[in-house]
Amino acid sequence: MLLPLVMFACSPDPSPALLLAVDRDEDGEYRVAPRPIPELTDAQHMEGALGDGYRGGRIAIDLFSADLAIRYDEGGRMDLDYDVVDGVAIPMDEDGLVLWTYYHTLSQVRADLNGLGVDTEPIWPIAFAYQPAFVGMDFTSGENAAYLGNGVHLFILLPDALPAVLPLAANPGVIRHEFGHALFNVLTAGDAYALAPYDQLEDPNVTNGVRALNEGFADMIATLTLDDNDFFDLSLPSVTTRDVAADAVADVSMYPANAESYDPYALGTVYASFAWDLRALTSPEEAVVLVVAAVEAWSAEEAWADTDRWAELLLELAVAEDDTLTAPLCAAFAARLPERQTPETCA
Amino acid sequence: MTPTLLLSLLVGEAAWAASGAEHSTAGLQLSAFALQTPARHAIVPAVGVWASYTPRPWALTGELTLTRRSKTNDYYGVNAQIARASALAELAMGTRPMTMHLGVGPALTVTSARTEWSETEAERITRADLGLRARVALDGPIGERLAWQWQVGVASRGVYNWDYDLGAGIGVQW
Question: Which residues pair with B77 in a beta bridge?
């Protein structure tokens, strides 16, 4: 369909019924398609019930504060170029597609989880910064999306480094992953703007261990709500280590021992793979409800130094729901965490 | 620029203008555009033509510049062509062989973007924006017939979108 349309400096409908966004269709394929985003009340300026967006701005560390507080100095108001054709908002550049995909993904994950009884409302609204500058922070990725907790409660989107693939910032799995960090913060810190208790501990190895579970939990939210075990493949086809249906197994080298350098993703992928094992035995919906409940239980125990305990709690909660899961889930537990003592539930 | 320097330039220009000095240039220019997209500034290359008529201390300059911004991957393609025409009334200062232009005037920017989002779905949207254009330029001769130009400029599309450019060109003079 080719319908040339000429506008002369006029503003399009701010609340179109449908907007183009990248999404996973029912056939499991990702594609750009018209989607409703009911919370986005101003599509031109990216403002709505889920939070407002800003272009640029800067994220800085307040070096003169006692706790080196991080803050976001808001950038300008966004101003997307698009037109509405046959009821569908069509962007005139990539930014519109990236930003509408971001908002649609949040809208969808909110509806999915609230529908399952997982309360996401403490997270909203959450502002987001599109390509902010970083001052005094080690954040040099050319293309990424991120959640900034630490009392800031902000999503960050950085588009454009790799030309041939879907930008991470427009990858529905990556956005859900970052949303998972925000949810983890609410579940463990109790409030979206609260500092998490494990971030204030003196032992950096404990903090790093929680980072691993945090990364794993974020992958669980992404993989289970999308029902896609390897959403990174859309944007980073060369990265194969994040596939949660693969054979990730914990070993001693994955646990934090050296505070100077630690990769939280390896152990996080083990945890997310165990959740995927549960999904294979139940359903994505049941699995995501249980992994959230397990984080709540783990947080209630304040078992910050024992992140494997989260896996035990997941197992216990799943078996309490359906005892026919005992044998296969215990087998999965033993396979993923072979050095962990057999849980009581399995003994 | 200090007031004294500005005054001396203007006095010098008045004297030069009284002598009837004038020249014209036209040529081809390559630029780097900092193009304000809806959410940031994107750096894109641009090509353009210019023509200046310079009866000092004044000048009239017309510009036509073309640039494009595109992104295509397995899921979508967005290709935008942008054309800008501007006409500037300028103050021309300095002596030949180097003249400085300070210009301001209206600009019309036409953006035509084709968005593709499946093998069969595509839409072309074209919009025109009026705005302001301002530039600082230097030009001078290369031999008897050729000329060079260097400039930095800014142009608006509507009220809120501001593009910046830096370019250099070569052309003819008479």
Answer: B72, B116
Cα separation, A164 vs A63, whole angstroms: 39
| pLDDT at residue A298 in the model | 98
Please give the sequence-ordered ranges of beta strands (E in DSSP) within A16-112, or none if there are none.
18-24, 30-35, 53-55, 58-61, 70-73, 76-77, 82-85, 88-91
CB contact under 8 A, A9 and B158: yes
User: Cα(first)–Cα(last) distance of chain A, in Å?
Assistant: 63
CB-CB under 8 Å, A95 with B37: yes
Residue range B42-85, pLDDT digits in tens: 899 999 999 999 998 999 999 999 999 988 888 999 999 999 99
Note the pLDDT tens digit of each residue in A237-248.
878 889 999 999
For B116, the closest chain A residue by CA position comes to A32
Q: What is the pLDDT of residues B96-135, one digit of tens each?
A: 789 999 999 999 999 999 999 987 899 999 999 999 999 9
Q: What is the rounded radius of gyration, in angstroms, for the C-alpha atoms of chain B?
A: 19
Average pLDDT over residues B135-145: 94
> What ipTM score was computed for the predicted complex, to two decimals?
0.83
Residue of B nearest to A161 (CA): B71
Identity of the residue numbered B101 = H
- Output the pTM of the full model: 0.88
CB neighbour burial string for A177-202, b if at least 16 within 10 angstroms, e if fewer: bbbbbbbbbbbbbeebeeebebbeee
- State the Cα–Cα distance between residues B80 and A1, nearest whole angstrom: 17
**Chain-chain contact of A95 with B158 (C-beta, under 8 angstroms):** no
Instruction: Give the position of tokens 């579970």.
Output: A213
Positive or negative, the CA dihedral A205, A206, A212, A215 is negative
Tokens of A304: 């910050």
Hey, are the CB atoms on A7 and B117 less than 8 Å from each other?
no
Residue A335 near residue A346 (C-beta atoms within 8 A): no
